[in-house]
Inverse folding.
């Protein structure tokens, strides 16, 4: 799954699915490695989206202060 252009809520939902799969099933080492890679990419995506949102909010608030 590519994390490019995936929404925050979709990333979180997929992370929850990955955790459930790991918790519920006897996941083989190869599948576990792939799930961890995917989860890592999703977490990076979430962090990036949060950082961009924070920056956007700060810019908006700064614009209000200038008026």
């Amino acid at each position: 799954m590519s994390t490019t252009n995936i929404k925050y809520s979709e990333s979180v939902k997929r992370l929850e699915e990955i955790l459930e799969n790991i918790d519920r099933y006897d996941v083989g080492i190869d599948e576990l490695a792939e799930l961890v890679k995917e989860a890592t990419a999703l977490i990076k995506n979430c962090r990036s989206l949060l950082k961009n949102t924070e920056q956007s909010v700060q810019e908006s608030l700064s614009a209000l202060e200038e008026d």
Q: What stands out?
A: The two ends are 44 Å apart (CA to CA).
